[in-house]
Amino acid sequence: MSGRKWVTEPDEYVCTLSEELQIMAKEELREEKHSRETALASMREWIRQNPRIKNCRMDARFLLRFLRFKKFSVTLACEALERYVLLRQTFGVAFNCLDITIPMMEDLTNRGYLFACPKRDSKGRRVIIARPGVFDLEQFTQGDMCRIHGIVYETLMEDEENQIRGFVHFADGQGVGFSYLTLFTIKEAVRIVKNGEKTLPMRHKEVHAINVHPSMKFALDFGMSLISDKIKKRVRIYTNLEEAIVCGYLEKDVLPKEYGGEVPMAEMIESWKKELKISHPILMSHDRMEVEENLFSAKAKEGAVSALKRGGINCGSEGDSLCGITGNFRKLEVD
After folding, report:
1. Backbone angles phi, psi at 167, to 5 degrees
2. Tens digits of per-residue pLDDT, 12-55?
3. Cα–Cα distance between 249 and 58 in angstroms, integer?
4. Nearest Cα residue to 113 out of 58, 86, 151, 78
5. Closest Cα to residue 260, out of 247, 271, 272, 273?
6. Distance between terminal CA atoms of the chain?
7. Given the DSSP bridges, would you call strands 53-55 and 290-291 parallel, antiparallel or unpaired?
């Protein structure tokens, strides 16, 4: 198992966290210098000796995603990493070729479908804005939706401060109607929600939603039944923006000007695009991560969203010469 070439090689971690972040990491995540060094060494050795993992990143910043996500339980962090790489490979459309230069991805970004506000809130957390109403069902596919989420979340998880502080989500349901339920089957939705919560190493601290259309209420209730009680308690649904602001949980100065803040949304999106450009080569290198799929049980692969067949969602072709150049091919329907 020696002499293998990894996506990134093991490095010596140099702590650049502020004193405040180090205290938070210790109190909330059980992270301190000795536990960090020991856990990184153990995790790297486990990867080297694991025949199921053919290639992945070995740098500290990447591995710390999983250790912080699992509060420095090495066993749970290793399981999460293995499941993460398997998920990437089994459901490649959401995790492979995370290329922001694909025309569809650029278009969704420019529309403000999903982006992070540049200013952190008073607790130092990034606020992720989701505007599903700008997702044109005639122009985009469910594959486009999955991929842009992958690009946004992977970009944000590269930042250690985000790994520790977690995220606030703000969703505006304006323009979302019954037809949006055709994007995913119930079986697909169940697997995406459950596996995303277990596998993506993100700390979801608050979720706020406004303008939820009445026709979507049963879908929302169903979605709420799928998430853990811990996350469920952090979700707040409001009738409109005014109600959300009055409740006092949202800090409007962080939000775009269109939602009561100070900075116009277009300006925020331009700032966000600069972050995406910086993370682009890192995200593209992730395509080299690989597991030995035949060493996983059918149950393990089923848990990695294998119900979403690779050929069933069209978003360019993973690994082909067109990925990142032409964007999407639409499915042709002949009468």
Report:
1. -130, 155
2. 999 999 999 999 999 999 999 999 999 999 999 999 999 999 99
3. 38
4. 151
5. 247
6. 55
7. antiparallel
141-171 burial, b if ≥16 CB within 10 A, otherwise e? Answer: bbbbbbbbbbbbbbbbbbebbbbbbbbbbbb
Which amino acid makes up residue 41? A
DSSP code per residue over 90-103: HTHHHHS---TTSH
CA–centroid distance for 123 within its chain: 21
User: Nearest to residue 191, comparing CAs of 91, 297, 289?
Assistant: 91
Of 110-119, 127-136, 156-165, 238-247, where does mean pLDDT reach its minimum?
A: 238-247
> CA 107 → CA 112, 119, 314, distances in Å?
9, 23, 17
How many angstroms from the chain centroid is the CA of residue 133? 19
Please state the pTM of the whole predicted model: 0.87
CB contact at 8 A, 173 and 30:
no
The whole-angstrom separation of Cα 217 and Cα 325 is 38
Cβ contact 192:184 at 8 Å: yes
C-alpha dihedral sign at 150, 232, 195, 184: negative
Q: What's the chain's length in residues?
A: 335
Chain segment 153-183, per-residue pLDDT in tens: 999 999 999 999 999 999 999 988 777 777 7
Query: What three-state secondary structure class fits 297?
Result: coil
pLDDT value of residue 225: 74
Amino acid present at 321: S
